[in-house]
Amino acid sequence: MDLFLQNIVNGLQWGSFYALIALGYSMVYSILMLFNFAHGDVFMVGSYIGFGVATALLGFVAMTGIPLPGWLILILTIIFSMFFTSFVGIFIERVGYRPLRDAPRASAAITGLMIGIILETGNLAILGARRLSFPQLIESTTYQLGGVFVTNKKILIVGVSLGLMYLLHRFIQKSKWGMAMRAMSFDFQIVSLMGVSINKIAPLTFAIGSALAAAAGILYGLAYPVLDPYMGILLGWKAFVAAILGGRGSILGAALAGFLLGFIEIFVAWIFPSTLRDVIAYSIILLILTFRPHGFFGQAHSTQLRL
Amino acid sequence: MDSQDNTLQQRKKGFRAWLQDFIAEIPLIGWLLGILGAVLVEYFLGDLISYYLGLPKIPVLFGFLTVLKKPLLIPGTAGYLILVYGLPILIIVKSLQKPANKLAGFLDKQRVTVAALFHLGIFYGALHFWADMSDYRLLVIKLTMIAIMLTLSINVINGYMGEFSCSHPGFMALGAYATSTITLLLFADDKQFGAALLPEALGLYFFPLALVAGGIVAALGALVIAIPSFRTRGDYLAIISLAFLFIVKSVIENLEFMGGPRGMSSQPHYSTLPMVFTVMVLCIWIINNFVRSTMGKALNAVRDNELAAEAMTVNTRKTKIITFMFGAFWAGVAGGLFAHVLRYVNPGSFGIQRLAEILAMVYFGGLNSVTGSIVGAVSINILSEALRPLEIYKWIIIPLLLILVMLFRPTGLIAFTEFKPKELMKPKQIRVEEK
């Protein structure tokens, strides 16, 4: 029983990365009906930007001698990195997606993939092949609740992710921009006639998605402090699976499916030998999609390719 | 009016017009003979010419590698290219213009198969001597041919049927492992399966059968994707195929008797140049016939509007199953060849990176087009070999190029065309000079 609860805690942590990344995929899809295939690499870039910001802040503290506490540095790092990384998203939209809005969908997928490769290689070319280790900003302490061990980092990771998701929800439901986004995902041709410019909403969506990915990148760096340029590929594709599993364009579905995917992977690794993790996890997903081909919250509408 | 036109035409006669006329008068077979001649010149005189031009050795890949490593050698390399490739091709093509046209006219009256075999024979001769000069060239040619097969087979699914299938590396892995298992089990002494069961001399003759078996295994694997595709398409099918790719890779990693994550090695040396060339030609020929058949038209109908296709008596389920299995079959065959070219396979070589590479080739070349697939595969492959000295920057330049192609030609370079061998091999009209 204790092990079960322990794995639930681990699954929550692992799932929050997937959920945060999947949200970015899903939001872009709901507006543009396209997936941003560079999103996994935006996560990687966010993590590196977080590394840079954290190092700079630590250097600032060391130079001026102002004693900033670790948690404050962490919060500042998350905020600054989210801000900087959102420009990466805006750049991707401007270069790879805006010119291709009327082109076949597969072309935009290819530009996305290629921008991803450029981000990876560019990173490798600039920073070299050595792996960086993310600075540990807060002391790790372990609490014992019953038989379950919870570190403060796990609480922080799950808490920050849930908090960001709540903020996103508030933004989409209550703000004027959020309303425009919802309207845009409902019917983007009509809404364009109502004076809402897709050229403002689409970059905004990319920016928010990238900011969330950056937050995921920093939280990932806290939990697994080794950064390398290819870390975004597998995580990104798996989060993409989660986004589809939740139902295309469904924000709630993406978050839930992200957590579900995390749980499935952790529990499969617990019950079976861990090498079988991918086989079983993806077989389950195949089964789910065979019986619910439109995901949990997706609408069953015609999915004609625009070719 | 007439006199004005005439003066215009005369004025137009610059270098470009001359070149256009020149090209318009040469049949395909003339070009092939020219290439063969140039390759023979290189084969017999290449060392001599490169010595006198101050080059350390024959420029292996049209001098790209030499030039990028040592920019000082640019004039020498350019001279080499002109002397060995440019001049011989021009001379042969021009001097053989009339006989080549006569020959093309003669072949045009024969069956297409005979004519095609004749052309292919000459082309193979050129390739053979070209590849004979260095092992590196041989490897590049073989891998390019395998890439052509992969690109064509994914074009059937992604281009002609309009699905977005991401499972091609998975099919390739199935084919590679199945073929390797058969050849290692039957014809080779190795660590995994022990001594050979059949005499090794038989191996080369059984290799095509092993390839077919690999293709069939891949085609059976494709059923996993074809059946869900009845109910869903587009993004969900993309995910199903992606999940299939992860599953195949993970299953192979867990099969200890197939080497697990370490992979299988020491496959026999069966993927020779004639073997790969023959299989590739068969692949192009069969796929071209497939997409031009009624079935191919049915594929396009399913892509453009599934409901309408169903209403027009296209059996969409049968079409989808056959197409997925057909595409996967050729991917499996290509995988089998691939395993025997590198003589080593491991699950890591059939991952997301391979998928990105295959997708790049097919979308660069052009959807719905056999010619486009060939162009895409050859250009991306040669480019990535030629830019090898740039090391890591290669993977910035190639994606940038692809993005540019997508921005300016969203369906790829040569999309939506038909590949007609008979038209290609036709004799060309020789213009009569007007006095």
Question: Quick summary of this structure?
Answer:
The complex is a heterodimer of chains A (about 300) and B (about 425). Chain A has about 300 residues and is mainly alpha-helical. Chain A has eleven helices and four strands, in the order ααααβββααααβααα.
What does this structure look like?
The complex is a heterodimer of chains A (307) and B (435). Chain A is mainly alpha-helical. Chain A has a domain at 20-228. In chain A, 74% of the residues lie in helices and 4% in strands. Chain A has eleven helices and four strands, in the order ααααβββααααβααα. Chain A has helices spanning 2-32, 39-64, 70-97, 105-127, 152-174, 176-186, 188-193, 198-223, 231-246, 251-271, 277-291; strands spanning 132-133, 142-145, 148-151, 226-227. In chain A, the strands form two sheets. Chain A has a two-stranded antiparallel sheet. In chain A, strand 2 and strand 3 (148-151) form a beta hairpin. Chain B is mainly alpha-helical. Chain B folds into two domains: 11-111, no CATH class; 134-423, ABC transporter involved in vitamin B12 uptake, BtuC (Orthogonal Bundle). In chain B, 72% of the residues lie in helices and 1% in strands. Chain B is built from 19 helices and two strands. Chain B has a two-stranded antiparallel ribbon with strand order 1-2. In chain B, helix 3 packs parallel to helix 7 (112-132), helix 8 packs antiparallel against helix 15 and helix 10 (203-226) packs across helix 15. The longest helix of chain B is centred in the last third of the chain and has 27 residues, at 316-342. Chain B is globular, with a radius of gyration of 24 Å. Chains A and B meet through helix 4, helix 9 and helix 11 of A and helix 11, helix 16 and helix 18 of B.
